[in-house]
Structure formats: C-alpha cells, structure tokens
Amino acid sequence: MHTPIPAPAHQIRIIVASTNPAKIRAVEHAFQQAFPTQIMQIRGVALESGVRAQPMCAEETLTGARNRVVHARQLQPGADYYVSLEAGLDGCATFAWMVIESGTQRGESRSASLPLPPKALARLHAGEELGDVMDDMFQQQNVKQQGGAIAMLTEHKLSRSSVYQQALILALIPFMNPELYDQTGTEFVQK
Q1: SS3 annotation, the chain
Q2: What is the mean pLDDT of residues 106-112?
Q3: How far is CA 98 from CA 42, 117, 133, 138, in A?
Q4: How far is the C-alpha of 7 from the C-alpha of 19, rounded, in Å?
C-alpha cells in the first residue's frame, strides 16, 4: 500500500527591522512560542527609524518602531510578518515598543520599564546612547547586542531578549486570536 507524502508546510517569512542579534533572538523565541508548529524563516535587515538614535520619550519610540515596519515592507515586500523593536526612554526608565504587522493586522505592545541610574540618565540627556553609556559604566563592549542594560542592571537575572520576548508575545495576541481582532472597517492603514 502506498502512503501519500504530506505536502510541505508553508514557511512563514518574518522580517525583523534590525540586525541586532538580541532583538532577532527575541523575535525567534516569541514566534516559536506563539506558533510552535510553524516553520519559520527569520531575517534581520538594517533600517532607519526616522527618529533620534536614542528616542527620548514614549511617543518618539513608538514612531520609530512604526517607521521601521514601514521601511521593512518597502525593502522586503511579500513577507508574512514585519517586526520592529524600538528602545527608548519614558521619564526615568528605558523600555521598548514592539510593532508587528501582517497584511492589514497590527499588534503593538510595550516592554517592561527599567529604571535607569541618575548618572546614566544625565548622559542620555546630554546626547549619548544607552548602549554606549552601559558599555562605559560596566566596562563592557557592545552591551546592546548582548544582554543590554537590562542584563547589566539586574546582574544577568534578565536580558534584553527575555524582556522583549514577553512584549513580543503580547504584540502577537491579535495574530494568535484573529477572530477577536478583526480589523475590517478599522482605521489601520499601512503607512
């Protein structure tokens, strides 16, 4: 008796609007948790945010994340998902916005906020970027592509990837429950 060969599963193509390994790892782990049976191809691309390198408020951070998704769609058309993670400041804390788009659906979520030491905040307000400040404060190199300020300030109990992964799963809720988040007739517009 002949056993039919199953058709190959559709491979989900995910474009991450960053080449930062910590961000790509967070996206990979979040999508694997949300869609464990899917085969995925994840690719990071370097894109401009259209905001300052160190966003200084929540609104600027969200604008940067949304801009990166727009640029990713333009640069890599035809992907199943576009994902952006933009870190910035909100008062005395750092956090990140997650933006995920697929078709006409969008999910957005914020990460947990990390209170920053006053000396680090002063340097950020003087124009430096958080990764550079953390490198200097902890005598490290390229903290932002590893555990981030989160790892340094929590003595490696948390990492940038682990905190971002949770926020990404929250941003994936509309895709995990599409029947509850039908965007027909809403004002979502691809910018």
Answers
A1: CCCCCCCCCCEEEEEECCCCHHHHHHHHHHHHHHCCCCEEEEEECCCCCCCCCCCCCHHHHHHHHHHHHHHHHHHCCCCCEEEEEEEEEECCEEEEEEEEEECCEEEEEECCCEECCHHHHHHHHCCCCHHHHHHHHCCCCCHHHCCHHHHHHCCCCCCHHHHHHHHHHHHCHHHHCHHHCCCCCCCCCCC
A2: 97
A3: 16, 24, 23, 27
A4: 32
Structure confidence at residue 31 (pLDDT): 98
Angle among Cα 110, 151, 70 to the nearest 5 degrees reads 35
Residue type, 171: A
- The residue behind tokens 């006053």 is 118
pTM of the predicted model over 0.90: no
| Average pLDDT for the chain | 91
